[in-house]
Fold this sequence. Notes:
Two copies of one chain form a homodimer. Chain A folds into two domains: about 10-180, NAD(P)-binding Rossmann-like Domain (Rossmann fold, 3-Layer(aba) Sandwich); about 185-290, 6-phosphogluconate dehydrogenase C-terminal like domain (6-phosphogluconate dehydrogenase C-terminal fold, Orthogonal Bundle), CATH 1.10.3660. Helix content of chain A is about 50%, strand content about 15%. Chain A has eleven helices and eight strands. An eight-stranded mixed beta sheet of chain A has the order 3-2-1-4-5-6-7-8, sandwiched between helices. The two termini of chain A are about 35 Å apart.
Amino acid sequence: MSTPPVIIERLAIIGTGLIGGSLARALRAAGGVTTIVGCDRDAHNLLQALELGVVDEIAADVAAAVRGAQAVFISVPVCAIPGVVREMVPFLAPGCVVSDGGSVKAAIVAECEGLMPPGCCFIGGHPIAGTEHSGPAAAFATLYQGKRCILTPTVNTDAGAYDTVSRLWQAAGAQVCCMEPGHHDRIFAEISHLPHVVAYALVHAVGTADVEGENVLSYTAGGFRDFTRIASSDPAMWRDISLMNREALLGSIDGFSRSLAELRCRIESRDPQGLAEFFTIAKQFRDGIV
Amino acid sequence: MSTPPVIIERLAIIGTGLIGGSLARALRAAGGVTTIVGCDRDAHNLLQALELGVVDEIAADVAAAVRGAQAVFISVPVCAIPGVVREMVPFLAPGCVVSDGGSVKAAIVAECEGLMPPGCCFIGGHPIAGTEHSGPAAAFATLYQGKRCILTPTVNTDAGAYDTVSRLWQAAGAQVCCMEPGHHDRIFAEISHLPHVVAYALVHAVGTADVEGENVLSYTAGGFRDFTRIASSDPAMWRDISLMNREALLGSIDGFSRSLAELRCRIESRDPQGLAEFFTIAKQFRDGIV
């Protein structure tokens, strides 16, 4: 077997948690990068990333982290990404490619592309992988193995820069696919952002329901807990995602409300055939994805 | 240790699947019943229940099963319960108590109470336990251990009959609690029937969403699968539950729709503070039940 080619010499990772740390570990295991420098607002995370060997070097701020890097990967909460890009812009090396791992793309890509100095390129990315854990200690080299990573280039994207980011993700084990940022956001509004919003609304409704003054949540069993697990996610993260993907999410909520209204109508009109059809269609969709 | 008292000599179980079969196994293990006779419309299930020792005897029909029994437990789909009661009425022994395990109570209790001959008593029941498996082979003696079983007596309920059903469930390991049938239905509309309806509507909406003609379900990951698992439940069962608990369920759907509309309003009006509050309240409800 031949030694895999080094894709770039120096990669900066801003945000050394599960997502950034796992990319670092995967690229080290694959030999795709010579040196990885980490930066994190949280000093404990940053020192731990160095101690655990997730990164080779650490930097005190974004400016120092990106100096001399051929590529930068940003894995911080979605609403913080444009601010991080703003900080790094004056210090980017010529030809540097900047990418991110945020789960919303159109707003981020539009803003960050506009911030790039001539010769540098921003490419939106979204690896479809994760665990319920966080922080550098949770990072592992095979997180992205066989998982999809969506890249969202635009008409402004440099082909060489796209190739670099794509090869980095492939070296990390991911299957790279490519789509328009708005298309990404409409898909994830449906399959991720809508389910979270629905789960939060459901728990809110059940928690505030007044059934003769009784706390109905005390009767919940395993099924309810499983169904509502995603309503335990970080409220600040979902506040940001809801606002950053506002338009697509509103459309998805409206589509869901139409489906629910249709189902409600079949219950109200006592339509056994219509109910069986509705539930069967939904079950077929659900069983088709397993 | 003293031998536990036999509660009744002869118990008939109509429907020898997971729920009925596990009650049989639990009562045998506890020594609460001398003889258990099983009856099931599905001949394979019935013979298997006998072969596996879930029941002592089997009967070809409901009439034969209930003859000489002091208690009858009905564990068949909710919409089939009144029909089973109708079949058994002419053959019930004097003083027999009939109970069920259906997840809807008001409609069943009203109908089945009215069918009882003088001296016999129907008491609605709902054990809060289950697994994803079904059939007599899935039954096990500890299914109800430490779980709640809700009984829904009415003003017509005979105290001795209630005591018999209550002692049977306690012998099976369950914690018996007691509530009015309509109260039960309003609670379970919130914590069980509403989540199922919402999950079906969500999968229906996402499955029929048109995002530039693409099958968005192909992008779903583990989170979506977990969240929508209950939309894989039996459509016929949920058709029946939706219709039998129609009124309470419509109220729960409307309460949920109000919560969702409130959340949608905070997204549309770009209200970060309001969104953080809503998500935090929901997360607190959710984390409180674990």
